[in-house]
Design goal:
The protein has 482 residues and is an alpha/beta fold. It folds into three domains: 210 residues, FAD/NAD(P)-binding domain, CATH 3.50.50; 119 residues, FAD/NAD(P)-binding domain (3-Layer(bba) Sandwich), CATH 3.50.50; 130 residues, Enolase-like, domain 1. It contains 14 helices and 22 strands.
Length: 482
Amino acid sequence: MKELQVDVAVIGGGTAGLGAYRAAKRLTPNVVMIEGGPYGTTCARVGCMPSKLLIAAAEAVHQIERAPGFGIHPQGDIKINGREVMDRVKRERDRFVGFVLEGVDEIPQQDKIEGYARFIDDNTLQVGDHTRIQAKRIVIASGSRPAWPAAWNSLGDRLVINDDVFDWDDLPSSVAVFGPGVIGIELGQALHRLGVKVTMFGVGGGVGPLTDGAIRQYAAATLNTEFYLDADASVELIERRGDTVFIRYQDRDGQVQEISVDYLLAATGRRPNVDNIGLENTSLKLDERGVPFADRLTMQTSVAHIFVAGDASNQLPLLHEASDQARIAGENAGSFPEVSPGLRRSPISVVFSDPQIAMVGSTYRELNQKFSACGCFEIGKVSFENQGRSRVMLRNKGLLHVYGEQGTGRFLGAEMIGPGAEHIAHLLAWAHQQEMTVGQMLDMPFYHPVIEEGLRTALRDLESKLKLGHSEIERCQRCPGD
């Protein structure tokens, strides 16, 4: 058994693990990174980058299909070669992974420990059956994995997750997508536009990350113009029959329907990889999901020398969040016992559907819980259906809600579905992080004609509804939900 004594041990070699290792290494030389699987990141291997490659192919098809609306009629039928589509997805995916691995190769070999780590106690890690590590500080960056109902395991290789999709050599003829979240919507719509018959089922009515009922309803209706989506489905039977998956369900009209599909794509969420690393052998305080509690500004857990970062933290499972958490956790592990709060940026999330879905700052649900008792926030609205630039481009679908605080006029957040939502979301995130008021945002320049003029319309609507001044501020400060 090899014995090591280190200043910092990082569990995981993905986005958060690599970031934490590098941050800690700048402050203390004796750092190791432990990884039991392939090095690299979820984003590059099976997440944001390969999914965008599939979406890009789907957008190319959609542009051709939309061309007659401009009086342009492509010759002949559109031919989608699934093998060529997936070949490019995999080639470019491997290229992105290669860039990550180049960075891993630059890490000294002695700093990379291969194997799965388990806690023996608060300072001791066992890696496989070959290495025991005594670490003064530890960063848990063990990532997450897809989760699905255990009953679906009977489907065998007819059950797939997003990881599997990007290893397909060809496109199937039909897929049932369970889970209209970010992954389900992105992959489901892309596959549909590439000629795959897609049927999508959800539970509880959720569509993407949206919490604003009006935006969610608009998103569901818009997606349903392309493929069947029931965000609160009643599924009676799922079973494997030969090389297909048989599904019996009640449709939105209450009629029983039966379909057979090539695959069931499980997009039913992810769970942090913290259930198999021996946390029961530590004195860490855990939440109801078994995830260590952590301060979001320092990433420090209830055990002062243990930090957590990335998907394992069960905070926001997004690459930019994982990178920020990694930097904070790594720097604090490296400089411990000196611990400093790090920069946490305004929340921003994007679903690369068409139209795109985006959220910024506080969600409608959060604001409603906080202010519903006293009406201390207002909503500004705009539809993109008649917005000038959107109509010019035949992309005039969408709805944007912006939220502002009564009294101060401060911009609080937004939820939207619409053209160019990724770009509008970035503008709004910058404004939110700067704690700008709605009035200050309206003082910013808006060019003509651009989609962002729709944002100005929503902000003007919000400004007209806000009541400003000290008396309103004092009233809202007394709000029982605050």
